[in-house]
Each structure stands twice: as C-alpha cells, then as structure tokens.
Fold Aminotransferase class I/II-fold pyridoxal phosphate-dependent enzyme.
Amino acid sequence: MTISGAWRRTARGAGLLAADGTVAASIFAEMSALAVRTGAVNLGQGFPDEDGPAVVLEAARQAISDGVNQYPPGRGQPVLLEAIARHQQRFYDLPVDPGSEILVTAGATEALAATILALIEPGDEVVTFEPFYDAYGGLIGLGGGIHRTVPLRAPDFQPDLDALRAVVTDRTRLIIVNDPHNPTGTVFPRHTLELIVELAHRHDALIVTDEVYEHLTFGAPHIPIATLPGAWERTITISSGGKTFSLTGWKVGWLSAPAAIVTAILAVKQFLTYVNAAPFQPAIAVGLDLPDSYFAHLASGMMHKRDVLAAGLRAAGFAISVPQGSYFIVADATPLGFSDGAELCRQLPALVGVVAVPITAFCSPAHRAEYAPLLRFAYCKKEALLDQASSQLAALSRPWARE
Ligand SMILES: *Cc1c(COP(=O)(O)O)cnc(C)c1O
C-alpha cells in the first residue's frame, strides 16, 4: 500500500473522497456549474445577492485603513466579543461573559468543526435531524463519530418525539439542533426544544445548536436552547455573521458556551484556522449593535421573498411546505409527475432555466428514497429574480410547453 493509498482510504472512510480519488460528488458544485453553463437563475446555493448593511461594509474598509490587518487574539477581538455578549443579552436575555464564554470562528462552519472534533471520541454517537446540513455528516465522519438521525417529514417537517426519544441513548455524546432548519425552513416549538434538553440531561449528552438563521424567523421569535432551564451548562450555541448580515463570504461566526467547554473547543480551533478575519471582526461588531429595526427588516424582507417564491412554486404545480424561517423552501415535484428530484434538478435548467438542489443532498444514503421527489429552492435573492424564476417555472404546469 502506497502512502497516497493510505491517506485516500482514510478520507474515503470519512466519506469525503470518491473511489476514484476525486472529491465525493457534491450536487451543490454540479448545480452551480450547471447554472453558470446554462445561464439559469441559480436558486440552488443559499447566498444573498445583495450585500449587508452599508455601515458594516464601511467599518471593514475603515478597519483595513486603520491597520487592523494582523492576527487578532485567539478568542476574537474584544470589541466583537463584547458586541456578541450584548447581542445575546438584548435579544435573548442571556448573560454571557465576553472574556471566557465566547469564541469567534471562521464562520459557523469552523465553530461546528472545532466543537465536534473537540467533544467527541471515535465511536461516540452524534444525533442530528434529517435532512441535515451537509457539513454535519462530513465533520462527524472526520471525528470518527457515528451519525444517528431523527427524520423530519413533509409536510411540516416536525420530528416525531418518540423517534427522538428512541435515538438518544447513553451512547449519545452530542445532539446537534439546527433551528431554524436548513433545508426545510422548519422552526421547532418550545416543547420539542425542552424534550431535547431533558434527553441531554438523562443521557449526559451535550447540545450543539446551529442558530445561523436566528434572525430569519417569520412567526414566533427564535428560542435559543441555551435559554431553557437547565440547558446553558451543556449547550454550545453557534451563530453566523454571514447569515445575519448577508455577508456569507466574510466567514465570521462565533459560539458561546460555559467557559470550560469554550476552552476545550479553543484547544482544537487554534490548530484549524488559529484566528481569522481581523478587519471583519470589528465590522461585524458594528452590525451586532445595529438597532432592532435592522433585524426586524431583515426578517420581514425575507418573509416577503419567501411569499413571492412560494406563490411562484405553487402556480408552477409544486406542493410546497411554507417555511417558518431560513433562506429555503421545500417543493414536492410529485404533483408534476416527477419522482426523482435529483434528475429533475439536472433537467430544470434546460426545461425552465432555474436551478434548485435535491433534498437527497441533505440525507444519508439509507434515507434518500423517502425524500426523493423533494427540491430545495433558495429565496434569499432580489425580488425581480424571484419573479423571473416564478414566471419561468410556470412552464412546468403546461407540459406541452416543456419541449
Ligand atoms: C450557512 C450555514 C452554515 C455555515 O455558516 P458559515 O458562517 O458560512 O460558516 C452552517 N449551518 C447552516 C445550517 C447553514 O445554513
């Protein structure tokens, strides 16, 4: 066995490499390439097509001019740590110590990576809901963990609570909760979050919450699990400046947790990126201190976009589940006569000039079949683009026009 053969086998063991040594086929890359090649409207990838607040952009330019360009402190710049603490207090009444209970990361992705790698041993079980954000599967594999899932099923994508009770056991080390949820747009009610806390206590598990869509809920305000009784001591709360300020390319995220847990995660994070985004950190701090009206407009604007695309998808003949949060809407292609969402996604650019991704991209191989006819469309786009996509999608409801 050559050395290269050995490392390939290792990466393949974590599901990251295909048998031929290429990066395991990502439907996201395939669909984005298809969008570029065909000029189709790309509602596949979840990034906004308008940049965040001008004052935040200006603060980053200013920071560069002011010479904030070298390695920041390992936990993050104090100005950002303090702004994060103020944000948790203002929106959630959650007191967090900026000096010891917060860690700034390279996006929510690095927060997830450092958390999972720091807190699991090979063979530990990690519970997520399914469909799941694709990074969870990859990171659990890198940590040598065993991934267990609780299904979220159409039309409301709420978990069956008995199924949740059955999956969490004494072997469970982490329960990862993404609320509001990507890709389904579902928001968990308080009693589900309370059950998660109860199960974590009973089985001595830790809770990791991916709250990157915390400011993108369209009904009841977001409930961070860490605010529930008995939860803070065993919860790692993760957020993303990319999602909250429409600045996904800046990759500024953070987590908060009890000091000892933050220290354990910092021990891993120092050897991942060490630190990141020096001039963007004070800019995100400016964003976090924006008035309540910024956050309210972000949500109401996104809710309007949701409604525009929902109407377009309904008119095209999809059965849709109206999301209560996030950037995404799930559409069922069954009423249109399609049973294979991945195949439909490959045809959609030629049929109607629109790109989406199949929900099966967020599922483990064993569970793909039950999600096969579902597609995810992103609505974090300009209204004119959503209107254009809607009118193009309408051709799907006129099969004679599909040629
Ligand atoms: C976008 C996203 C992330 C990654 O956030 P970054 O800050 O870009 O790393 C993590 N989790 C979910 C559910 C997301 O949608």
